[in-house]
């Protein structure tokens, strides 16, 4: 139960990281756009100040000087953030985007709060600048709810202090306080709502992407399975035609070789006869593998104990092990399942033999069985050199082999037998070894 709970928490945490990463990247892009707009606006403000001075409209009052200084602060500050974005845009790290976006928002809203609260009301009138900045940031950027509370609380405090200091008229001051309070609350509510909607939208898109990816992978797997079955069918047809045409003359030749090899005057050449017979047997074995892939070959399924079959085979498996190799078994309590014992033995012996050959420097060959939900799992794992990733998908394909003298039929036979058992075979391989997992259904 605890493991399942941890898995759910890990999944939710992963989802949250994915969503927040997308949001932070989007915010960084939008902040970049705001920076460009504000840089342009700052240039226009400077131009306006200059024209006002030329036409004699500039008044050297405290409010006008403060306004001019605020234009300088805005240009320098926004330019700084724009240059920061240029340096981090190629870094795929959420923390950089978040720091950049959040610090920019704090700067802009606090700047507007300062200007709105400290400059003479004759110039700005009401708290228009602060109102516009609050609503603009709330609707345009998708911020974390905790940050939203922090942002509007501290900027509201800054504005409130400045209004109390600079505004002497109690009625106007009271109106400004009421307006700023409503603006901060409404902006916070709107920003939170939009942020949650965006998170849901991204979650929906992530689910769609995963569904499309899963669907694509499923179609690819089905296509691979169709191609594999087509190859099996082709080989089955070939095997059916070859069996009688080739095996009969081979049996005759083998018989005569045995007869001639036992003649007294051929005793000196006995080793040659033995070699020819072994090669015929090898050719006959390949034909047997062809026949194993035949489409019409029937398997007989009976309720059998998988653990008992493995224990019976253990002496044969150990016979394939070298001196530096060890056989380990982890056979848990599992129910009996429908199996063709002879065919299953072929699978186990074939895969374990491959596992032994994959460990030239020694290692452990582990056979495990256990129950998972309504399935019985058989795992055969070696500690060999592993299989190259580029050829992993080709494993089990007829005639494909990584061995110098292999036929590429051994694992193809195993895959075919597994298919006839209505089971699934999965393969995982890396530099530390290879693991075959065969999943049998209990029902």
Automatic annotation (TrEMBL):
Coiled coil: none annotated. It is an enzyme of class 2 (transferase). SUPFAM superfamilies: ATPase domain of HSP90 chaperone/DNA topoisomerase II/histidine kinase, Homodimeric domain of signal transducing histidine kinase. GO terms for molecular function: ATP binding; phosphorelay sensor kinase activity. InterPro entries: HATPase_C_sf, HATPase_dom, His_kinase_dom, HisK_dim/P_dom, HisK_dim/P_sf, Sig_transdc_His_kin-like_C. Keywords: ATP-binding, Kinase, Membrane, Nucleotide-binding, Phosphoprotein, Transferase, Transmembrane, Transmembrane helix, Two-component regulatory system. Pfam families: HATPase_c, HisKA. The chain crosses the membrane at residues 31-51, 63-83, 95-117, 123-142, 147-165, 177-198. Residues 241-443 form the Histidine kinase domain. CDD domains: HisKA. Its EC number is 2.7.13.3. It catalyses: ATP + protein L-histidine = ADP + protein N-phospho-L-histidine. This is histidine kinase. It comes from Desulfosporosinus acidiphilus (strain DSM 22704 / JCM 16185 / SJ4).
């Amino acid at each position: 139960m605890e493991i399942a709970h941890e898995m759910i928490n890990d999944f939710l945490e992963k989802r949250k990281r994915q969503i927040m990463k997308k949001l932070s990247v989007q915010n960084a892009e939008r902040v970049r756009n705001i920076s460009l707009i504000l840089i342009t606006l700052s240039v226009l403000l400077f131009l306006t100040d200059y024209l006002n001075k030329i036409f004699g409209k500039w008044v050297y009052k405290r409010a006008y000087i403060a306004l001019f200084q605020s234009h300088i602060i805005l240009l320098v500050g926004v330019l700084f953030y724009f240059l920061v974005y240029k340096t981090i845009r190629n870094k795929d790290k959420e923390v950089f985007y978040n720091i950049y976006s959040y610090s920019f928002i704090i700067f802009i809203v606090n700047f507007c709060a300062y200007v709105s609260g400290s400059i003479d009301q004759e110039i700005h009138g009401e708290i228009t600048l602060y109102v516009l900045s609050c609503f603009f940031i709330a609707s345009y950027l998708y911020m974390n709810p905790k940050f939203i509370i922090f942002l509007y609380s501290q900027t509201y405090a800054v504005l409130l202090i400045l209004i109390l200091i600079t505004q002497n008229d109690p009625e106007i001051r009271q109106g400004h306080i009421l307006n700023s309070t409503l603006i901060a609350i409404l902006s916070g509510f709107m920003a939170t709502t939009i942020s949650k909607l965006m998170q849901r939208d991204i979650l929906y898109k992530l689910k769609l992407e995963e569904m499309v990816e899963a669907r694509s992978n499923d179609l690819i797997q089905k296509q691979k399975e169709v191609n594999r079955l087509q190859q099996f069918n082709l080989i089955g047809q070939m095997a059916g035609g070859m069996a009688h045409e080739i095996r009969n003359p081979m049996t005759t030749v083998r018989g005569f070789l045995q007869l001639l090899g036992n003649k007294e005057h051929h005793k000196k050449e006995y080793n040659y006869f033995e070699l020819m017979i072994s090669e015929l047997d090898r050719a006959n074995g390949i034909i047997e593998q062809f026949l194993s892939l035949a489409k019409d070959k029937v398997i007989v399924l009976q309720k059998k104990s998988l653990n008992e079959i493995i224990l019976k085979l253990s002496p044969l498996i150990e016979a394939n092990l070298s001196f530096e190799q060890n056989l380990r078994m982890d056979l848990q309590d599992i129910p009996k399942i429908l199996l063709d014992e002879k065919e299953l033995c072929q699978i186990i012996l074939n895969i374990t033999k491959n596992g032994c050959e994959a460990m030239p420097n020694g290692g452990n060959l582990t056979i495990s069985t256990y129950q998972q939900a309504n399935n019985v799992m058989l795992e055969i794992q070696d500690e060999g050199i592993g299989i190259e990733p580029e050829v992993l998908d080709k494993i089990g394909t007829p005639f494909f082999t990584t061995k110098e003298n292999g036929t590429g039929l051994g694992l193809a036979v195993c895959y075919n037998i597994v298919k006839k058992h209505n089971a699934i075979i999965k393969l995982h391989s890396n530099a530390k070894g290879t693991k075959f997992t065969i999943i049998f259904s209990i029902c």
